Amino acid sequence: MTLKFISSTALVITAVTLLVVLAFHVRAGATANAVAVLKTTGMTCSSCSSAITKALKRESGVAVTEVDVAGGLVIVGYDTQRTKPETLAQKVSDAGFSSNIYAVLTPEEFKQATGREIGRSASATTGCCGVNKGGCTNNRQNLAQGE
Length: 147
Ligand SMILES: [Cu+2]
Description:
Blueprint: H1 2-26, E1 34-41, H2 46-57, E2 62-68, E3 73-78, H3 85-94, E4 98-105, H4 107-114, H5 135-145
Antiparallel strand pairs: 1-3, 1-4, 2-3
This protein binds copper (II) ion (CU).
Protein name: Heavy-metal-associated domain-containing protein
Organism: Geoanaerobacter pelophilus
InterPro entries: HMA_dom, HMA_dom_sf
C-alpha cells in the first residue's frame, strides 16, 4: 500500500519533471520573467521600431519586444538571468534612440496594468496602443502604476 503510494508519487514527479523539461526545450528562446518599459525618444515611424526590435532581438535573454512609436515606449520581456534593463536601454540607445528605464515589472504586473500578456497585441511591432485601448497616454499611466 505505502510502496504503491510512493511509486505512484515518484511516477507523477517524473512526469511533471519531464513536462517542465520539454516545455523549456520547446521554447528554445528566452523566457520572459520580467518586463522592462523603456522610455524612448526619437522614434517616428515603423522603420524606427523595426531597427529597435532587431537590435533587441540580438541581445541574449530577450524573449519578446513591443515598440510603441507614438507613445515613446519600448517594452521588452526578458530573462533576468541573461540580461538586465540597463543593457536593454543601452541597446536601444546604440540603435540611435535616446532610451532610459521607465519601469520594470513582473509579467503579472504588466498584465494587470495593460489587461493583456506582453507580445499579445495586434500592433506589437507596428505602432501605437490603438484608440480602442485608451491610447498611449493611458497605457503609459497604467504601466507607471504597475511599478
Ligand atoms: Cu522611423
